Each structure stands twice: as structure tokens, then as C-alpha cells.
């Protein structure tokens, strides 16, 4: 894998300010559309938790090698390789990362789509298909931006690193592997290529993913005292979580870019295993919660509050089973009826994604802002990302200043008939290229 070295002469070395029009003209609409379509046509859904990104990753690795970049392919798990590509400048300098992901969410029922989900059909100004918006269109834009810099011969210092990672839609194994294997060392800043209407996003919500399990004793619905129903304690805990959400909203107020924090139950299941039946009290009840945080919230303090609520509920019920009125009723109804009746609650916080916030004074924010104005003629719109991205860990684990920028409407990802506008995608590619040249000038 031989990197293509850019030549520099004394005249271009002294050239200030950078004239980037020749670079932007290298970004051709037809080439951008073609690459986005090709990526969409390679399905990369992770089904059943198993990797499905290998084909599209290897396609990109081959393409980037042919362009002249240094390319490394690293397996994160079977069927899921990260692709890391590097373009080196003419002299030492900072490293700027463009971060994209290859995985896409399920297409659901293809018959509900107007156009086949993996066809990448171009209809007037829109490319349709799963991943068009989130985020294969922006991946194509990043590749074409780097290619334009390369083909124009424009000189820059430092390095451009393109990180094409896996499992962003899942547990973000790709970016965690990337950081753990040392790739984040030396990266000065990162642009997270996600669909945000080409707004300049400098903050994003944090997330806690929580599983709550309440455990009682299975019994006949007509004889509830022969067992213990785990559903009412679950309801009680969830109501207390809701009050905690209200307290946090009152304490923190509304973040100007992210809105309010939230504690949202998304799954409620009883029984946890087996078949539900009207006249059977289940032995277990399970809930999943999607908790979103904003700057100013301590995740450790919030986790302690959640744990305290669960333990308080558990203690209260256990005491009532051992010595309260409930035990007296059971003993009155039948000798030894309380034997074997118990209650337990388990809280499992299985993913912690901190919120991020990047100062407007950071060089990467200023470079993107300048690039947006240069390409569009308009001032940037500062915004925040309501969900977590791979940038969450680049920021919190590796300490890299991040911004999120990309084409695509906020509400389009993960829906049927997903699409991205070609005009917007073309602007994105130009903003990416301009940002790199400004940041690495």
C-alpha cells in the first residue's frame, strides 16, 4: 500500500489565504451520486447482532487503495471490519479525522417501501435507500472530499484520517475497538459525518441504557397471595423514575441546543420468558429504559439516584413480606402460605454514553464555521445532536474535540423510504474538503 505523496513548490507554500476553488471543482455531482448509490446497493444490516458490514468495508478499502491512500483493515468481530485510511500532507502537522459508519438499521418490510431499499434509486434530486441519509451518503461525501484534495494537488500539512467504522447503530463496537487499538492517539480533531441538515453541531446528548428486572413468584390469578406479582413494584419504580425526570428538568432547565433530559421506558415485558396468560401471575417483569442526558448532569450521580430508588422499593416490599400486614393475611389464609414468597429487584446499566460539548473557540469549530460560510455564503447554524454517535467515545474516551456535520434531514433516518438530497450532499462534500484545507493550512 503506497501512499501518494503530494508535491509542494515554494510558490504554493507561501500562498495565503488558501485558494480552494480548484479543489471544490473536483467534487463532481455525478461521481458523488454514483458512489452513494454503490454503497447503498451493498446491504450492511447487522442481523441478530452479527456483523454485516464486511462487503461494503472491503469495497471501500479497495477504492481508497486505488485512490492512493494508506489503508488498514482491522476485524472488530467476524463480518465487521473497521477501515482506516490515511492521506499524508507535505509536512508534519495535526491529524484531522472524518468518522463515518458502514452499518445501517434494518429495512423492515421491503414491500412497504416506495422503491426497493437497496436499489439506491435516483429520483430527481433524491437518492432513496436504506443508509442513504444515515450515513452512506455522507460517507460518499467524505471520500469524494478527500479524493478532490488528492487529485487537485493542493498542499496541506499534517494528515487526514478517514475512519470507516462498524456497529455505530448498535453498541458502537467499532469506535471502541478503534480507540483501544491506539488509532485515536494523535488525532487533533474529528468531524462526525451524520445527517444533521448541515448544521454545525457542537454538543450531543449522553445516554444510559438500563435494564430493570423485578422478580416475584408465579401463581394462579385467582389466588394471588400464593405468589407475588412483580408487575406492581415495576410500575411503582417507573413512576418514581418519572418523578426523577421531572426533578432533573426543573433543576437543569432547557439546554439551548439539546432541549430537556429524559427518562423513557421503551420496553415492558411480563413474563420475561414463556407465554403470557390472563389467569397466570408471572414470576418476572422486565423493563428497558432509554435515558438521555444533557450538559450539567453527572452520570455517576444519576446512576446512584436510580439505584437508590430500586433498592428503596426492594427493601419496602421485603419488609412487608417478612413482617407486615401482607404476611399476616397470608398466614391467616393458610398455614405456611408465605413460605417461598420473596421479592427481588435488579438494575443493570449496561451502556454509559457521556454527553459531549465542544467550545466554539476550538480550532475545528472555527474551521467548519469558516468552511460553511465559504461554500454556502451563509453563517453556520449551531445545533446539537439529540442522540449519541461514535463521536461520544472519541470525545469522552480519547479527549478529541468533535463536531457533527452532514447532509440529511433530522427525521428521515431509520424510516421507510429513507432519502438524501443530492444538492445537500454536494454541499456537504465541499464543506468537508474546505474544512480540511482550512484546518490543515
Give the topology.
Elements: H1 10-13, H2 21-24, H3 29-40, H4 54-67, E1 70-77, E2 80-88, E3 91-101, E4 122-123, E5 126-128, H5 132-152, E6 157-165, H6 173-180, E7 187-192, E8 200-204, E9 206-215, E10 219-220, H7 231-252, E11 262-269, E12 280-281, E13 284-293, H8 299-323, H9 325-333, E14 344-353, E15 356-357, H10 363-376, E16 382-385, H11 391-396, E17 402-404, E18 419-421, H12 422-439
Parallel strand pairs: 3-6, 3-7, 7-17, 8-16
Antiparallel strand pairs: 1-2, 2-6, 4-5, 5-18, 8-15, 9-13, 9-14, 10-12, 11-13
Give a quick rundown of the structure.
The protein is α+β, with helices and mostly antiparallel strands.
Count up the domains: 2
Q: Roughly what percent helix? A: 25-40%
Largest sheet, spatial ordering of strands = 1-2-6-3-7-17
- In CATH, the architecture of the largest domain is 3-Layer(aba) Sandwich
CATH topology of the largest domain: Aminopeptidase
Question: What's the count of strands?
Answer: 18
Distance between the termini: 26 Å
| CATH domain class name of the largest domain | Alpha Beta
Mean pLDDT over the full residue set: 93
The largest sheet, given as strand count, sense and whether it forms a barrel, is: 6 strands, mixed
Give helix and strand order, one letter per element, not per position. Answer: HHHHEEEEEHEHEEEEHEEEHHEEHEHEEH
